[in-house]
Amino acid sequence: MSLNISSTVRLASGTRMPQYGFGSPSAQFTYDAVTEAIKTGYRHFDTAQMYGNESEVSRALHDAIASKIVTRSDLWLTTKWNPPQPLSEPGVQTDKVYAELRASYDIFIKDAGLEYIDLMLVHQSRPGPQGRANHWRALVRAKEEGWVHEIGVSNHSEIHLAALPAPTPAVNQIEIHPWMQQRPITSYCKAHNIHLTAFCPLVRIDPLRVADPVVVRICQKHGKEWAQVVLRWSLQKGYSPIPQSKSAARIHSNADLFDFELSPDDMEAMEALEVGDEAAASKAALKEVRGP
C-alpha cells in the first residue's frame, strides 16, 4: 500500500482531502504546534469552536501562506459547530446556527485571509432528530453559498445519520482505534460513502494499551514506535487519523509512518484487539468527566 504524508482520500463529491491530519492542541500551544506540523508536511488541520483555538489555528495557517511555505489550496481546514448543552428538541433554529457559523467564519477565516472552510462538522448529535435536522440545514446553506466547501458530522451513529435530511454528510468523525473499532457505524459509513475521520486514534496513550504485547511485538518486528504502528493501522484501514500533540519531537515522530507497511497478519492481529463493551464503558466514563 503506497502512502505518504501527502496522500489524499476522495470524498463523495469527488473532492480530495489529505488523508492524514493533525489535531490541534490547547490554545496556548496551538500556534507553535500547527506551525511545526506544517513544516513537517501535515496539510490537514482539525479544530472546533468548542476547543477555543480556531483563532490560533487560522493565524498559523495564514502566516505559513504569507511566508510562502504553503498555498491555501495545499491546506485542509476542518472545524466544528457545537450544539449547546443542555438542549432539548427542536434544538437551535437553523437561522441561529447559520448566524453562528457565519460569525465564526468572519472572525477566524475571512479576517485571516483563508477564504473558505474546507470542512464544517456538527460536533455532537444532540438533542434529537428534529434538532439534528435543523442544525444540518444550516451547514447545507453554508455549503450552497460556497464559503464552506464540504459538510459532515461528528459523534453520529447510524440511526442519527439515516434520519438526516439530504445531502448525505461527507465525513463522520468518531473515536476509532484498534481497541474500539466501532464496526456497525464504520460499516454503515462505508456503505453510504461517508468518510471516517478517527479522533483519539492513539487511545489517549492509555498505559495498558501502550504495553499491549500484540502491538509491542509488531513494533519490534518493524523497528517502529507504538504510536507509529497504531497510526499506520488507522491509515491502512482507510481512515483519517488526526493525532494531537504539542511536542515538536512527537509531531515529527507521528509523521514517520510511510517507510513501512503492516502485513495482513499484522492487521489481523490488531483487528483482534477490539474490546467492545469495555471500550464503550471507558468512553462513557470519560464523558462523565469531560462532557459529551
From TrEMBL:
InterPro entries in the cross-refs: AKR, Aldo/ket_reductase_CS, NAD(P)_OxRdtase_dom_sf, NADP_OxRdtase_dom
Keyword Oxidoreductase: yes
Catalytic residues (positions): Y51
GO molecular function (one): oxidoreductase activity, acting on the CH-OH group of donors, NAD or NADP as acceptor
Positions bound to substrate: H123
Site (Lowers pKa of active site Tyr): K80
Superkingdom in the source lineage: Eukaryota
Record keyword Ligase present: no
TM annotation in the entry: none
Positions of the NADP-dependent oxidoreductase domain: 13-202, 213-273
Keywords, sorted A to Z: Oxidoreductase
Coiled coil: none
Protein name stated in the entry: NADP-dependent oxidoreductase domain-containing protein
Organism from which the protein derives: Naematelia encephala
